[in-house]
Specification:
Blueprint (H helix, E strand, L loop, with lengths): L3 E2 L20 E4 L3 E2 L4 E8 L3 E7 L5 E3 L3 E3 L2 E7 L8 E9 L2 E9 L26 E9 L2 E11 L4 E9 L36 E4 L9 H6 L6 E4 L1 H5 L1 H13 L4 E9 L6 E3 L5 E3 L3 E9 L14 E9 L11 E2 L1 H8 L7 H5 L1 H9 L8
Parallel strand pairs: 3-10
Antiparallel strand pairs: 1-8, 2-4, 4-8, 5-7, 5-9, 6-8, 9-10, 11-12, 12-13, 13-16, 14-15, 16-19, 17-18, 19-20, 20-21
Length: about 375
């Protein structure tokens, strides 16, 4: 496979006559600090003539597309997934004539400095059985009583939360602070394991998973602006049908004693990426979903009189603009589980029994479309 040359001509690295001007050689990596999964990085070569390149200290886990070329060029470094807990590195060395330069390539590992929070038995939580993801929760206090703001399942490789889960009710919707726009870093994680999204990202909007409007007490609204609650979302989706769905969820919550919400994204292998404000790669989700579980103690909503007070609905959208109603994309919770591979509301069977829980997750309850 040929290496892409980007120079206007070929120059010699050796002195040919008195008019030859020496040019400094250089090597730069498009991704000098890579996540732990298998991937590739561009390698930008600056050289005035014939050159050779090698990878040292890598034990075969990193390979160059080509090891020699002429003039300025773009090479590719391919690297395997890092199976270890610690980061690893290798050195790329460029030789042109008598000149030599090098660049360091570093790949992350599963750091032991990150530890999940304990996983409670809250009703809104999906399964947390993926040992490559980390569970975190942000608590809050209202009127002296403790609640949870939201919980999330974090991917230090993709730099997105696969889901964010939280309850909604009249108390949790109290307050009137509006949007704080307090874009910032999540104190739960070191900066290198989360995206920096204080500024905009190219081609996408910073889409909330728990919406800002779902938390109207200032300190807790600020937490919805952490980068860990954001994903690169299509602008037409974010400000269109997705925004309408978020308002629908809040409206529905006012009819229940509590509405349990799971909002998440689907990141497939090989998903495209976009840079955060520090140059780290964030995976662009292929799709987004919401799973809703409503609880009405007196059983006056939909099927709740036969399911100990519970009823549910789910939604799925590809990461692009939509026309029409969000209800066109509705489905049962079971259907969303089959589509995404997530296991939602895993604590429901222990609360109401397996048969009733199965009815909640498999039933298309007409109440949601009234």
């Amino acid at each position: 496979m040929a290496i892409l040359a980007i120079s206007g001509g070929v120059f010699s690295c050796t002195k040919q006559d008195t008019q030859t001007v020496a040019t400094k050689i250089d090597i730069k990596l498009g991704t000098p600090n890579a996540p732990l999964e298998k991937g590739q990085s561009f390698v930008y070569v600056t050289a005035p003539g014939d050159w050779m390149m090698s990878v040292n200290g890598n034990d075969g886990w990193a390979q160059l597309m080509g090891t020699e070329g002429t003039g300025n060029a773009v090479n590719i470094l391919s690297y395997d997934r890092n199976p270890g807990e610690n980061e690893r590195s290798c050195v790329l060395t460029l030789i042109c004539g008598t000149d030599t330069t090098s660049a360091l390539f570093v790949q992350s590992g599963y750091s032991t400095t990150i530890k999940s929070d304990p996983v409670p038995k809250w009703m809104e939580l999906p399964a947390t059985d993926n040992d490559r993801l980390y569970f975190f929760t942000h608590p809050m206090t209202i009127g002296g009583k403790k609640y949870r703001n939201y919980s999330y399942y974090w991917d230090i490789n993709a730099l997105v939360a696969h889901w964010v889960a939280y309850p909604l009710n009249k108390t949790l919707l109290s307050g009137s602070c509006g949007r704080s726009d307090a874009w910032g870093l999540d104190p739960k994680l070191p900066e290198k394991y989360q995206p920096v999204l204080i500024g905009t990202i190219s081609g996408y909007q910073r889409g909330h998973q728990i919406p800002s409007a779902d938390r109207q007490i200032l300190d807790y609204n600020k937490e919805t602006f952490y980068g860990t609650n954001m994903t690169p979302q299509n602008g037409g989706l974010n400000t269109g049908v997705w925004s309408s769905l978020e308002m629908y969820v809040r409206d529905c919550s006012r009819s229940f004693d509590t509405l349990y919400v799971v909002t998440g994204c689907v990141v497939k292998s090989g998903s495209r990426t976009v840079k955060d404000n520090r140059g780290k790669n964030i995976s662009v989700p292929d799709g987004y979903f919401k799973a809703l579980l409503g609880y009405k103690k007196n059983g006056t909503i939909g099927i709740t009189n036969s399911t100990s007070g519970y009823t549910g609905i789910a939604f799925y959208f590809n990461n692009n603009s939509y026309s029409g109603s969000y209800l066109n994309e509705s489905m049962t919770i079971d259907e969303l589980e089959r589509k995404t591979g997530f296991d939602f509301f895993v604590n429901l069977p222990s609360a109401i029994g397996q048969d009733k829980a199965a009815k909640v997750e498999s039933t298309s309850d007409g109440w949601w479309s009234n």
